[in-house]
Each structure stands twice: as C-alpha cells, then as structure tokens.
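Section 5.1 Outputs to date
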Amino acid sequence: MTARSADRARFDRATAQLDAPLALVDLDAFDANADDLVRRGGGKPVRVASKSVRCRALLERTLAREGFAGVMSFTLAESLWLARSGFDDVLLAYPSADRAGYAELAADPELAAAVTVMVDDPAQLDLIDAARAGGGEVVRVCLELDTSLKLFGGRVRVGARRSPLHSPAQVADLARAVARRPGFRVVGIMAYEGHVAGVGDAVAGRPLRSRAVRLMQAAARRELAERRAAVVRAVREVVPDLEFVNGGGTGSVQHTAAEGAVTEIAAGSGLYVPRLFDNYTSFSGRPSALFALPVVRRPGVGVVTVLGGGYPASGAPGADRLPVPYLPEGLRYDPQEGPGEVQTPLLGSPADDLLIGDKVWFRHAKAGELCERFDALHLVEGDRVTATVPTYRGEGRTFL
C-alpha cells in the first residue's frame, strides 16, 4: 500500500459516519508543516497569514506553537474581529477603505494597540483621518515596499502590482509624512516577494520554464535583499524605534530569513500545502487540508460523477487554479466538462472500484480559499476525527 493509499484508508475510516461534501485537516501533517516553517525561519518568528487558514481554531493552534508570533490578516473587518477575539498582534496586509472599521479602530484603545494597518499612499492617511468620527487613538501604521524586479530600465516588471513605493527614498518620504501627522505612528515595514514565495520553480514536465523561474528568482532575491536593507536603513533614520520588518512567504521562508534586515517572516499556505505548492525545490510539505465529494453516479465504465467540485482558486484563470482529484490516485477530469458547479465527472480506471456514496478526496489549488466553500473543518488525528471546528464561513464571517 502506498502512503497515499494509506492516507485514503485513514480518511475514509475517520469520516465513515459523515456525509460528503466535507473538508478535513490532517493534524499530523498540519503540525509537521508548522514545524518545517519554523525550522526554515532559522530563529526568526513566523507571522501566520490568516488568509491562508481562515479558521480561528487553527490560527490559535498555530500561534500556540513555539516559533510563531502574530497574525497577518487580509481585511480591516477581519482584523478587528480577530483582535476582539483575543489576538493581540494583527498586521493588516492590505490597505483598506473600510471607513466604519477605521472609526471603530480609532475609538478603541485596545483595538488600536492590537491592530496595525497597511499604508503606501498619503491618500490612505486622509481616508483614515476622515473616518475617525472623533476617535483619537493613535493608529499603528506599516509601510509596504514594492518588491517587484524591474529590468531593462523598468520596461520589464516581474512581480505583483502592489505598492507604488519602490525605492528607499520613496518609503522614507512616506515615513516622514506619517511622522509629521498627528494620530499615526510608523511601526513596521512589509515587503511580500510573491514572485519568489508564490511561484513554483520545479514545474513537472516544464524543465526549461522551471530553470528560467529559478534564474529569475535568484536575481530577484539578490536585488531585493540589497534594496530592502537600504529601505530599512532609510526608514530607521526617520523612525529609530521601528518594531518589525516583515517579509517572505511559504516558498521563500529560508531565503528571506537569511536577510539581516528582516525581523519576521510571513507564511500560511505552508500549513495546508495546497496543490500550487507542490512545485518547489526549496521545501516539500505534506498536504494537510482536503475536501471530499460523494460519488452519486456511475455513467459507464471508467467514469464516476461526484456532487459539486467547481471550486476554482483566485488568480489568472488556468488549469492550475482548479482543485485536483487526489484520492484514489489516478482519477482525472473529463476535458469536455471539467469540475462543475453541481456535478463533476471523473475518468480513470479507479472509477470502476468506486460505489455510490464513496468519497473522492480533492486538494484545492490555494490554501484558505477552500474554507470559503465549507462551514467546518473536521480535524483528524490518525484515523479518528477528534474535533470539528468552524471556518470563518461557519462563524458567519465572509470578509471578501
């Protein structure tokens, strides 16, 4: 029996009394992945990215482990909810236009102490000030650096279009603008190198592309390490008591941690290890989050149909954004239909061994987005479900 076959047997036994569709997290794999993130962090704390987890119970489990500190959130409403739930160090990773949220933040000293907001433009400060509604608390601010690699005089750009702040001078100028403005305090710098941390460099069957990605990423790491250090020096001249410099992501933890200017690493997808994180040379994790769909039809030889399945991930549309049939091994989509909203036909010889009501296990393409489809996660240890916990959706929270 292969390791994957053994996992299928465990998961089927653990959920034998549960009807699919359902989602589970294998806690043995989850904890092993957490340990690997800490190991790769090399002694620098790992801030867990809530967007990649979307379950309070698992955020709490992660933060209880040595080596993790703080949450990186994705909306202001989520940040305030987490802070009110007891999370005392929440870094909002994206700028917000949530005026009601800013009014709540500026009026509550406990929230203002726990939540740090992201800024890369003075206009965002204007919006926050206009939303204060009389709240006088000092708002903690993090400045985001654009990490993109610019080549040929800027004519070629590699990396996500995020912050407009690219040079040390630009970041320092915004730090000075914040420092001059009552009601705000710069406490950190964030730089997310998604073109390194979020792009696989060992794509199966694509050796030339994989080599090109590795060359690009090596050049990007060198350029960013030098520029990030210069940014931190420039900002510390304005803000000597800067609290943190955040960088990284699951695919670049050890590389980013090696930079002296970085004080903490952000990661979250490496806890669940969705399918987009299979193609890396820098690490190898264990898939811990899966979902099961029930077989509801047997249309013919070598074919079964499962209920649901059309759960694409965000990003540029493509086959890599689709869930992948995982267990039993050997199933594939019908190219004429793909995964459907209500039903999904699956092809392959393993289909002939599946009965009506059997479970087919899938892996989602991206980590936390799985939780937008399911109200609960069944936590599995060995071959038993030891707890069932709500996702954000299960708590009635859909922030985006």
